[in-house]
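Retro notes, structure queue

What went well: the backlog is down to a handful. What didn't: a couple of records were mislabeled last round, so from now on we paste the full input next to the output in the thread. Example, using BHLH domain-containing protein from Zingiber officinale:
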Amino acid sequence: MSGRGRRITDEEINELISKLQSMLPESRRRNAGRVSASKLLKETCSYIKSLHREVDGLSDRLAGLMDTMDSNSPQAEIVRGLLRS
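Corresponding output:
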């Protein structure tokens, strides 16, 4: 079945919520146990936003590092290699 006309069951929703909760770092799961799906989704969105901020900060730091580095240096080549992988 394509899933298009099929309704998701409460059991499937609970399983998905459980899987989503297990993906959050421990510090975000402090209130383990049964939390509402709404609260879990809000917490997940908050976590994703914090990851975006962290990636942005790391990108800025990397850009600053690359600006101070000789583009032909072995260190620059290592960084480029890491970015390709």
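Agreed that this is the format going forward. Reviewer comment attached to the example: The longest helix spans residues 37-68.
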